[in-house]
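in:
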């Protein structure tokens, strides 16, 4: 029975299609995972463009997606959800209401006898010191308490506005930068030195599908890509791990480009 991995849905913002259309596509993909008799599903961060939980309210919308998560966990299929940089303020709502298992930091799980390092990827590896400082502040209890004092209408408007400004300033995601330029590759190499038994390192955040073999010649760094444009995900079973693209109602293989190990298929 296969295990599925996906990340960076960014529900709440329009891209190639509207957020509602993307939500329906994600629900169809989840139905496909169930039809494939999924062993487990890992949703590796940035499921929402922004998420905050007040004491008695949560962001409006996403009922089809959230309902599907609850339906799947009710069937006994575990779903692991990781916080990302856009939804780091998840608390207990999703675990209590949908039955998912919530992770705030990278974890190592044994899957089909393989040691698999899994995490969203933000703030890991060398560099990006400005964001690392900001993340420490945003994760502080006092910061969440202060933001929670805002009316939800204002809080959501501000968060989505600044998220849009940040996305516009960054421009499109760059192609694979090579092992020297990819911070997550450097992070995975460091973790591999600490745990030579790692077989896979699976992350999101980067927004391009990547399949790169680390320096030991066997451990694979796999980046899941995103669903704003390309709708890519990973299917793993006891024999292999393959990056695929979800095309409306069915999976499709991703053509490998930019070298023998790296899949880069972002379309502008």
């Amino acid at each position: 029975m296969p295990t599925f991995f996906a990340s960076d849905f960014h529900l709440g913002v329009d891209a190639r299609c509207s957020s509602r259309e993307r939500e329906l596509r994600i629900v169809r993909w989840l139905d496909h995972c169930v039809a494939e008799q999924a062993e487990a599903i890992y949703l590796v961060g940035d499921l929402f463009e922004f998420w905050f939980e007040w004491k008695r309210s949560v962001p409006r919308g996403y009922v089809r997606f959230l309902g599907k998560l609850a339906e799947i966990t009710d069937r006994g299929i575990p779903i692991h959800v990781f916080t990302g940089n856009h939804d780091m303020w998840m608390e207990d709502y999703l675990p209590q209401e949908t039955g998912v298992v919530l992770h705030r930091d990278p974890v190592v799980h044994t899957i089909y006898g393989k040691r698999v390092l899994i995490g969203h990827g933000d703030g890991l590896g060398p560099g990006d010191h400005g964001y690392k400082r900001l993340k420490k502040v945003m994760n502080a209890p006092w910061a969440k308490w202060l933001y929670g004092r805002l009316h939800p209408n204002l809080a959501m408007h501000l968060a989505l506005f600044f998220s849009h400004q940040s996305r516009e300033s960054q421009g499109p995601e760059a192609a694979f930068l090579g092992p020297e330029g990819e911070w997550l590759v450097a992070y995975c190499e460091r973790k591999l030195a600490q745990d030579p038994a790692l077989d896979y390192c699976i992350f999101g955040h980067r927004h391009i599908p990547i399949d790169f073999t680390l320096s030991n010649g066997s451990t694979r760094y796999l980046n899941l890509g995103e669903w704003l444009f390309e709708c890519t995900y990973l299917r793993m079973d006891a024999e292999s791990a393959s990056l695929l693209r979800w095309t409306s109602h069915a999976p499709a293989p991703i053509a490998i480009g930019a070298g023998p190990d790296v899949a880069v298929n972002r379309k502008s």
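note: Confidence is low (pLDDT under 50) at residues 256-261, 264-268.
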